Amino acid sequence: MDIVDEMLNGSKRALARAITMVENECHDAAGMMRRLYPRTGRAQVIGITGPPGAGKSTLTDKLAKRLRQQGKTIGIIAVDPTSPFSGGAILGDRIRMNELILDEEIFIRSMGTRGSLGGLSRKTADVAAVLDAFGKDVIFIETVGVGQSEVDIVKAADTTVVVLVPGLGDDIQAIKAGILEIGDIFVINKADREGAERLNSELEMMLVLNQGNLAWQPPIKKTVASSGNGIEELVDAIDSHVKYLTKSGELHRRRSLRAKNELLALMEASVGRYIVNRINQSGRFESMIASMERREKDPYTVANIILSECLK
Ligand SMILES: Nc1nc2c(ncn2[C@@H]2O[C@H](COP(=O)(O)OP(=O)(O)O)[C@@H](O)[C@H]2O)c(=O)[nH]1
Ligand SMILES: [Mg+2]
């Protein structure tokens, strides 16, 4: 039996190894994905994003426990660019989520972001696909929502939950427009703190301005993740969003857009590699760059020359 067979037989060790292969962009990973892909598309993928310290891990922990009570199996992918650890362990997350690891049906993987900025969203999507093929019912992707790469990561999710907290700098303008657009559900966590009401009304106003007449009005839920307050309501909101996605055809639309983007990104990467290899082999790369340095040629012209030669 090989790793895919073992994994599909339910081996958690094989699952962990398969994920490592994807993470390390192992040569065999593509062959593995070919066999796993037909088994994907069943899991519900939930993105949890927001500023550091907002309570995303605590919230994910509580949501996972709640869903376990409904008999669902869970995978958690924690992506944190602030993690200083190579290979990806986020110490805080590991410790806090340790309790969950005791539950056989919850699989947690922390992913480092070092040295893989561009490919990170694709890797995260692939790790989610592996968990999906393994048979996890619900997959959480926790990511620090600060920049474009995090927004890209969250695109792998069916439902995106944006977690905010009162008092993170008084100014709601600090909340980037990008994060308002990706939120299907907004959570004001640490609602036990002062300023939750004000954040709520400010957020309501921004969402009204932002949404025009969308079929789905992103709800705002208040939670205290550390005590579990509001988790039930959040689970209900996620359920409603899934129902909306299915009924409206939006799930299908999102997933086909995702498939298209995945394919485009993969092709861009491999065409790029192919061209760089060719030009390196020809030994003319350096001289072309030198001609740019001398301002004899501009980068557009050079790129065009290379492309037309390669595509002949
Ligand atoms: N007061 C309060 N603290 C919370 C709440 N939720 C999480 N915390 C605490 O906030 C800190 C950061 O939480 P964590 O889940 O690691 O945040 P993350 O960085 O977004 O994943 C931890 O010390 C949590 O115990 C909450 O609702 N209220
Ligand atoms: Mg966290």
TrEMBL record:
InterPro entries: AAA+_ATPase, GTPase/Isobutyryl-CoA_mutase, GTPase_ArgK, P-loop_NTPase. GO terms for molecular function: hydrolase activity. It holds the Pfam family MeaB. The keyword Nucleotide-binding applies. The keyword Hydrolase applies. Keywords: Chaperone, GTP-binding, Hydrolase, Nucleotide-binding. Its EC number is 3.6.-.-. Residues 42-186 form the AAA+ ATPase domain. Belongs to the SIMIBI class G3E GTPase family. ArgK/MeaB subfamily. NCBIfam families: lao (TIGR00750). This is GTPase.
